[in-house]
From TrEMBL, chain A:
ABC transmembrane type-1 domain boundaries: 82-274
Pfam families for this protein: BPD_transp_1
Keyword Cell membrane appears in the UniProt entry: yes
The protein's name: Carbohydrate ABC transporter permease
SUPFAM superfamilies in UniProt: MetI-like
Annotated InterPro entries: BP-dep_ABC_trans_perm, MetI-like, MetI-like_sf
Family: Belongs to the binding-protein-dependent transport system permease family.
PROSITE patterns, per the entry: ABC_TM1 (PS50928)
Species per Swiss-Prot/TrEMBL record: Streptomyces luomodiensis
Location(s) in or outside the cell: Cell membrane
Membrane-topology descriptor: Multi-pass membrane protein
Automatic annotation (TrEMBL), chain B:
Name the UniProt record assigns to this protein: Sugar ABC transporter permease
UniProt key word Disulfide bond: no
Subcellular location: Cell membrane
Keywords: Cell membrane, Membrane, Transmembrane, Transmembrane helix, Transport
Recorded family membership: Belongs to the binding-protein-dependent transport system permease family.
Region (Disordered): 1-23
Residue ranges occupied by any ABC transmembrane type-1 domain in the UniProt entry: 95-309
Transmembrane segments: 36-63, 95-120, 132-152, 182-205, 236-262, 282-310
Highest taxon of the lineage: Bacteria
Membrane-topology annotation of the record: Multi-pass membrane protein
Record-linked SUPFAM superfamilies: MetI-like (SSF161098)
Keyword Manganese: no
Species the sequence originates in: Streptomyces luomodiensis
Length: 289, 319
């Protein structure tokens, strides 16, 4: 217990106020650091060419217009790139989650062997420089005539998404009470039946979160897409965006900003919809590791 | 003697070792029955074909003279690539830059994220806003993050120069990403911006796993903020800290897109991270074997650093 030596109530209150102010100040700095580039991107995307050329940039566009967005669609095949990204990301997410579910189940329920190998592989797979994987993949896909093809990229993303899907899913599966499965087993259900009719329904929210996470990862990915997709009509959003940078780094700032905002929207919507569950799922693995 | 004493925890039967298993349990632990194999197979096949296979192939390529688009067959040349690398001063420059980048970004990410997580663990009014905003950099494509910061750093139209000159901190505009001495720090700031929020969220979740009763008990016992942090919070948070820092470090060593968009490795190679260097070597100059050898050196370094870093964790709570 705090004894007779404790400070006077007035002093305690003053300290608490000072501490509180300091905390809010720190939080304020953080919010500025985080939000300021975002607001700048948004503001730039609505500015006129004349305003972007002025020597003293203003915080907010003087005469906001959609011109840059229109120009962005004219300058690059944005719609087509968005469609490519959508197809690639959605297919890769669906396939990787579908293949991950049984394996995640085995990892979660057979901790000893499958669990350990799985966890080690997940960690190791994060460790290898992509260059060591991309050169052989490039050569193999080239021999299969899958270079510059969306199908090749999807295949790469499926495998690339797998470690994290496994990680998240096994966390969700561990949260499903084992007693339910045991009850199903007593009732005579086989392993696949149990997985299908007992575990999967309870897993639905986790599945959705994992799907969305895989989608966003694939939608945002750049390196593999840059190496594997050559012709503009096959390229995804990330790669198309770099065309706005132009050669020698001379860029048309307005359309560049507008296209960037558009490329971010789908991921942001998914994250906003799902943020709570997503964080929970990602951490299910990380915290217990 | 002091050495052995300090390792008491690692000795079998010491604290943290599981109780001995029965023979039946051990048998079940080692062999997998057919059902489990069946469950693992759908994930195992694509992984073997598109991840483990290429990885081994990539390692093999490091010992060949493989080049893109040439007619003579690829030859096995042993350690020639690796010994060439030894004298490639450009590679070692990029190696140093890469380590500087990875260490700085990881350390700053962690320091800022820890402070912020402790802050957000308190009951503050704007907490929801900070938590929501924390997810945004995480959800953004790295290409967009790079483009966004190019707009911030832009020498004429950028907000950074404008703010700094208006407040008198700077006399004339700086071209941050093209300046020999500012480019690396400037990209490091972007790296921190992009990764810090995720680390914060992980640490925050770790903090919520610290038993509240323990902290309250320490508080009642008269422990101050610092004592409470060092004796209760930190030990409970440590496993999370170790995993997230190790992962962040690996991710940062392997990063590519952010800097590719920001500077393409310039000015004068000042921000040419190893991945950018290897990418150029492979896909601009077509030197597949040589680039693979660079990848191999990177793996080796990461592996050594991680072993040093994780040795303790692995022996303590074997996965």
């Amino acid at each position: 217990m705090t004894g007779a030596s404790s400070p006077t109530p007035a002093k305690v209150r003053a300290l608490r106020i000072a501490g509180g102010t300091g905390q809010y100040l720190a939080l304020g700095c953080y919010l500025v650091f985080l939000a300021f580039p975002l607001l700048w991107l948004l503001s730039t995307s609505f500015k006129s060419t004349r305003e972007l050329g002025s020597l003293h940039p203003s915080w907010l566009p003087e005469d906001p217009s959609w011109d840059n967005y229109r120009a962005a669609f004219e300058a690059q095949p944005l719609l087509h790139a968005a469609l490519n990204s959508l197809v690639v990301a959605a297919t890769a997410a669906l396939v990787s989650v579908a293949t991950a579910v049984p394996a995640a189940y085995a990892m979660a329920r057979h901790r000893s062997w499958a669990g350990r190998v799985g966890t080690v592989w997940i960690l190791v797979s994060q460790m290898f420089p992509f260059i060591l994987v991309i050169i052989p993949l490039f050569l193999v896909l080239k021999n299969l005539h899958l270079i510059d093809s969306i199908a090749g990229l999807i295949a790469v993303y499926v495998v690339w998404n797998l470690p994290f899907s496994l990680w998240m899913l096994q966390g969700y599966i561990k949260a499903v009470p084992r007693s339910l499965e045991e009850a199903a087993a007593v009732d005579g259900a086989g392993r696949l039946r149990t997985l299908g009719s007992v575990v999967l329904p309870l897993l639905a929210p986790g599945l959705v979160a994992t799907l969305m996470f895989s989608f966003v990862t694939a939608w945002n990915e750049f390196f593999f897409a840059l190496v594997l997709l050559k012709s503009p009509e096959n390229q995804t959003m990330s790669v198309i965006l770099t065309h706005f940078l132009g050669t020698e780094g001379v860029a048309d700032l307005g359309p560049l900003a507008a296209a960037s905002v558009l490329a971010t929207l789908p991921s942001l919507v998914f994250f906003a919809l799902l943020q709570r569950r997503l964080v929970g799922g990602m951490l299910a693995g990380a915290v217990k590791a | 003697m002091s050495l052995t004493a300090s390792r008491a925890d690692d000795v079998p039967g010491g604290r943290g070792t599981p109780p001995p298993r029965t023979a039946a349990q051990r048998r079940r632990a080692l062999g997998l029955d057919r059902g489990t194999w069946f469950l693992l197979l759908p994930a195992l096949i694509p992984v073997l074909v598109l991840s483990v296979g290429p990885l081994l192939y990539g390692v093999a390529l490091a010992f060949t003279d493989a080049q893109s688009g040439r007619t003579t067959p690829t030859r096995f040349i042993g350690l020639a690539n690796l010994s060439d690398l030894r004298f490639d001063s450009l590679f070692w420059d990029s190696f140093t830059i890469g380590l500087t980048w990875a260490v700085c970004v990881t350390a700053l990410q962690f320091a800022l994220a820890l402070g912020l997580a402790l802050l957000l663990d308190q009951n503050l009014r704007l907490r929801w806003l900070a938590r929501t905003l924390a997810l945004v950099p995480w959800a953004m494509p790295e290409v967009v993050v790079g483009i966004m910061w190019r707009l911030v750093y832009h020498s004429d139209a950028g907000i950074l120069n404008d703010t700094l000159t208006r407040t008198g901190l700077l006399h004339e505009n700086v071209d941050w990403l093209a300046d020999l001495s500012y480019a690396l720090p400037a990209v490091i700031v972007v790296g921190v911006w992009a990764g810090m929020p995720q680390t914060t969220v992980v640490l925050l979740a770790g903090l919520q796993n610290v038993p509240r009763e323990l902290r309250e008990a320490a508080h009642l016992d008269g422990a101050g903020i610092w004592r409470r942090f060092t004796t209760v919070t930190w030990p409970a948070l440590r496993p999370v800290v170790v995993s997230i820092t190790a992962l962040n470090f690996i991710w940062n060593v392997n990063s590519f897109g952010l800097v590719y968009v920001l500077t393409q490795g310039g000015p004068g190679g000042q921000t040419r991270l190893p991945m950018l260097f290897a990418y150029e070597e492979a896909f601009t100059y077509g030197q597949f074997g040589y680039a693979a050898a660079m990848g191999l050196v990177m793996v080796a370094v990461i592996a050594v650093l991680l072993t040093l870093f994780l040795r303790k964790k692995l022996t303590e709570d074997a996965v």
